[in-house]
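Our example pasted here:


***
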Amino acid sequence: MQITKKLIITNTLWSAVAQVLVMGINLLVLPLFIKNLGAELYGIWVISNVVLGYLNVFDFGFTQGLQKYVAEARVKKDDQELSEVVVTGVGLLLFIGLFLGGIFWVGAPSIVEFFNIQPENQLIATQLLKISALFCVVMWPLRIVDVVLNASMKIKELSFLNAFKTGAQSLVLLGMVYYAADIVSIKWVTAGLMALCSVYGLVLLKKYVPEISWRPSCFKFHQLKRMHKFSLGMFYIAVLGLLTTQIDILIIGKYVGMVAVTSYSVVSKLYQLIQRVTGMLMAAVSPAVYNLHACADLIRIEKLVHSAVRFRMLLTAPAAYIGILIAPDFIRIWVGEEFVQYAIWAQLLCVVPLFTGLGVANTVSRSMGRVKEANIIYTAQILLNFSLSLWLVYLFGVGGPIFGTVIAVIVIGDFTMFPFFCRLIGIPWKKTFFMAARIGLGGAVVFLIGRLVMPFVDVSTFLDLLILAGGLGVLYVLAFGGLFMRKDILKIYRQLRVKAAG
């Protein structure tokens, strides 16, 4: 398959549309959950999902390794090797699901005891974790669907599947929360629905990658041996990535309590939305690099890095600055006046995306096999974040871990490490780096204009908030379009003229 800029952008847009629809539904869940079931139970729901998220990284990096070697086999058009990699991967993932599910089931009471959960809710928390353990056996081998479709650049099809799964789950969750159903029943129904929807992915594999032979004899131990070094490196960095996003909740859940976890979930929502939307570009980057690296096409990899950084920064800078501006109104309208006191922490957390736009180089270098260096850097970042968060949580409560995250990302993050990762890839860095810096600074100017306008704007409903955010977004588009996208705009204009003339 030819990896083109159009293919990457198209796949990214499909992924974006699917995720935005699901995020819109999920926004409605939190306030209803707090109102109908209580902040304590919502905190337990969050903690159970965080713990499950940690369990999910214990594939030891083999899902990333499988993606890399599936892509290489397809580039070589070696159907036998492709079948061996896929069938071996299914067997490995099934074993991991059985193993971790068993450990999770047995260890659920101990996990619950670690957190600051009220005694009357500890049994509920244990039940939620055990339900997750049971479904590990089904969900783990079905990960092969995501692996193969990603590696085959069938991201549009995968996006439809994931949107269907998470959308159906979110709608059912919303309905059950609305009617104040029992939280354990909610977990059974949503987990079962997710498993049923995931099985349909096997139909997509049969349709879009028919060359795979699913015979058990295709399981080969030498394939595991071949991919273990790269996979274990990716596993380590996956653990670091999970710690980066979830360590704050663990610290707050341990040292403050479940209600504080709910407060953190409120203040971090804007940040999560920004990261998810602006990070959608990365969904197509790794599969593209696997294919380009297999072809030894360093020139196109350099172009990919520059284009991906530019488009990501053009999304990230406006989203981050708008998030800082609207955070107090967003929280007040979304969950109520009592949470506005935490808005300052939401604004501080929205600073983080400004320093992650250059993470493309990190992703590309890892996808090319340079995982050791990335692991060292992000280990240092996690240690700094963890140390600061533990110290500051006693001073600032919910805001302490947020301070730790911001400082760690600024000091040892994608922005400061971008030149290093570019050298690992073997491409120049200055042009892309200073382009990203100009976008960030240009956004600051528009932010100051928005800051001057905000006191004169009355925001009392979500519609008002959307109009305000949309207006600010238009302002950014006009500013950034003229400064950083005029070549793309002129190209599109010429294409339209040619079509009109034809």
Remarks:
- The CA atoms of residues 373 and 421 lie 9 Å apart.
- The first helix runs from residue 5 to 37.
